[in-house]
Amino acid sequence: MLIKNGTVLTVTKGTLTETDVLVKDGKIAQIGKNIAAPQGVRVIDATGFFVMPGIIDAHSHIALDAINEATSPVTAEVNEGDVVNPLQIGIYRALGGGVTAVHAMHGSANAIGGQCETLKLRYGTLDNDALKMEGAPRTIKFALGENPTRVHGGGNNIVPRTRMGVEFVIRQAFSQAKKYSEDWDTYNKNKLAKGFRGAPPTYNLRLETLAEILKGNIIVHCHSYRADEIFMLLKVCKDFGIKRIVFQHVNEGFKVAPELAAYGAMASVFSDWWAYKFEVYYSTAYNAAILMKNGVTTSINSDDAEMMRHLYHEAGKTQKYGQLSDDEALSLITINPAKQLGIDSRTGSLETGKDADITIFKNHPLSIYGVPQFTIVDGIVRFDRANDPADMRLMPDPKQNMDDVYFRDKGRDNCMDGTEFLFGSSAEAGAKAGDSLSDKK
Amino acid sequence: MKKIQLLTGLFTVLMCVLVFHIEAQNPKGKFGAFALTNATIETITKGTITNGTVLISNGKITAVGTGITIPQGTEVIDCKGLTVYPGMIDSGTNLGLSEVGSDPRTTDFNELGEVVPQMKALTAINPNAVAIPVTRVSGVTTALSSPSGGLFPGTAALINLHGYTPEQMFAGFEGVVLNFPNSGRRGFFDRRTDEELKKATETALKNLNEVWERAVQYHKIDSATQGKNAGYYPEMQALLPVVKGEGTLLIEVNAAKDITAALKWVKEKKVAKVVLTGVAEGWRVVDQIAKSKIPVITGSILELPTREYDRYDQAYANAGVLKKAGIKVAIRSEEKSNQNYRNLPYHAGFAVAYGMDKDEALKAITIVPAEIFGVADKFGSIEIGKSATLFVCDGDPFETKTQIKQVFIDGWQIPMQSRQTLLYDEFLKREPGLSKK
Questions:
Q1: How many Cβ atoms sit within 10 Å of the Cβ of residue A391?
Q2: What is the pTM of this model?
Q3: Chain A interface disruption, residue of B195, B283, B302, B338, most A CBs within 10 A
Q4: What are phi and psi of A382, to 5 degrees?
Q5: Tell me, what's the ipTM?
Q6: For the structural domain made of A1-53+348-386, what CATH number should be given?
């Protein structure tokens, strides 16, 4: 595929006008002027259009059939990779917003939640494994504050009920994992020795997973809001030697930006969401700008199937709130989330050799008038605004009621999906309770 | 003695610093005579004026145009390179009724009871809600604050976002909210069967008709007794202006078949003053709405399609489709759960990106809602005699790059400050930084 004559926003290597991008075998083969189209190659005329790296959402819950295993404050053993659903129409809708990769996350019910999956939006495949980004580092969801305390302390009547309890639960889990890891090391070291008589430690997937975090093989992505709890987890990480930590939401990250920067922790934020619960009351839409200017690698995420479709617009808001440059603003939804997921060697910018994950916009993506025209994943056009039919479902249910209309309950919390039973917020209760019980995020 | 002098001196200095500090932290609104000069003026109703002046005096716009003489004692604000717009009006808020969405103790938009039109938003609006300055510094100066939940959740009020009492904030419109029986689901977690859903909708419609019939009877008794012996029925008293055709009924309705049902209901009951709100699936039944001549307040624009088989951008395109059919369309943000009414211009901008005419989108957040609420003599455009409720910015207000420079509400120059800007000022370069020394 050859994308001809566009304004190429590489993000990492400046903006190139009237430039072509040649795609071969799913990779970016060449970026330059007047590239001759090899024979039989599809040519997309991008004259007047903007060509940018595919947008990456570091916090999403699409393409998943289950979000929360809310049965214990620690559920490191469960894995979102087991419940990937390639049929969800939300995948296509995200492509319509220029998104090419997402971090499909476990919810925030547990202090240590389940493992997450980095997906490429290869919509059209019926194979759930085909959505998974091969070679992407393992990640896991942690959660601090109101959600784990109200689910477990409030709903299940077990620790944690407070932020003190959250710290304890995490320290206890890591301590147990450390011991488990040491027991295995000892066993492995001694088992071949002459006359060894011990038995191996009992295999435990939860502790195995936690031990992998301690070894640096799994990136922690922690749902958090308040400055104190963010600082708390930094200390825990330091004590256990965990270096790869990304804070999610992190609405009060701006208050501890110097500490985050010094530790090398990263932040994935909303552009402007606040006021939906108490722990986001003291937020500011300048959060991303303050974090960036203090040297924290920052991304803007959606955590929402709708907002996900205009992350470019959310990034644009940092130009209102903090006057970030175009490249800084674009980095929030491309190379920075790629770094946070550990996939920046393959995605997040337009560079030769990287995966051909590309979005083509009419009008600049940071302009309100920017409209994605093509979204390309691994060199395959997965979204074509001009030519796609309206109905893009992959396997429509022939028995589905065509009159079924879905209105989003905006007070509903994706991150808390699967915990409704604890709060009695059934559809009926939710009708009158409105936003009061089923708060967001 | 010297010590005391020194101490007194220090104390004085400290007091000065403190007083100065307090003043710097809490600037107040300023009322007076202002001239916004050298400005591009988007009047909305009378075209664009370049290099013009807007005079503000005693709360009103007293002159608009070029070659205007500036009276003595007028504070001149040079707006070279800047543009003046009328204040934006968000018709989808619960401003002042909600502080922290998840905490019922801080929310006042949802009273108990299915039929409580007598619950008045205006009495419960907190003039000091933190979201109010957050909203107005972005150029959204006026908001319809609505109760929600149930069939008749209460009476919404239009407020200006500056003032300390309901009277000071009231912008001249109140309307009864009706949540028309909804046949849609509230999300994928709403697992009611088709039969249950149908039954719930029918029950709600039956209930609505009973309430309306009572209101009609109440009206008859009230008229016959000249308002003396109708008895104390507060919910009926609240519905009375609507039944009489004097008050406005704001009908929240979104699914296509519910819109059809609502239009039929309005016709049957001969409700005179009606506004349809929400109208997410308006595009499906656009001809019916156009034929009814009923105005529409639509939004959120930034929404998902309502059906899995619909085109991905259908919600973005809805407002433009309605407008093109000749319907009077206002755009609202409806960003209630996160109090992000400051995003209103971006909702309008998305409508433009997906097909709406830009001028129409601008009107949809200024003059059109003003007309719908019957306050177009005061708000919604830059015209002589109107309230000086406007903002000044350095570009297209739909663009996120644009900075809002000044806001005036009822002639008050608003401090360009909110808790969110204060946090920015404090934390951009935090002191102490990493080390306390």
A1: 12
A2: 0.94
A3: B338
A4: -105, -15
A5: 0.95
A6: 2.30.40.10
